[in-house]
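WARN retry 2 of 3 for item q-0093 after timeout on previous attempt; input resubmitted unchanged.
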Amino acid sequence: MTRILFLPGAGASPDFWKPVGSRLPAEWPKHYFGWPGLGNQPHDPSIASLDDLVGLVAGHMDEPVDLVAQSMGGVIATRLALELPARVRRLVLTVTSGGVDMAGLGASDWREAYRKSFPAAAAWITVPQASPNLPIERINAPTLLIWGDADPISPVAVGQHLEARLPTARLHVVPGGDHELAQTHAEPVAALIAEHLG
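OK item q-0093 returned
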């Protein structure tokens, strides 16, 4: 049975995906990541960049896995699918950037609100930087894209852009879903993921 690695966004909590994971078959092996130093998670001096988080997840990929990722976690997932294609069986990306120009697709800036919510989070997470331009057309892993139609941080236009560029992607839009749709709409999100990974 393929192990599922759940990757949160910059909120960083390993509990973020548990409402969805608890609705998936109990026999499916699951691992919930938290991001050291982000959100309210304890700091780890070895984690000081997105590259370090990519390495953290890669260390758990000694065999093919399924990656289920939200927001910033989707950037990590797409990078892993590009750097370790033989280790990624299937992808689920929710309300992410996936390495595309977010501002150009109408996304609002999340940094000020994030810093107010998580004042102790590592400084590097809110340093403005150009979105990585990843060659996502090279990703061959079957990919499910889940977006909400009420998300200003990652609007549906981003999901549509990714669907057009990823060779094996399909987009599902959840009515009323915002950036936390994996928690607020866990039931339909879990059903979509179960179908995709099953």
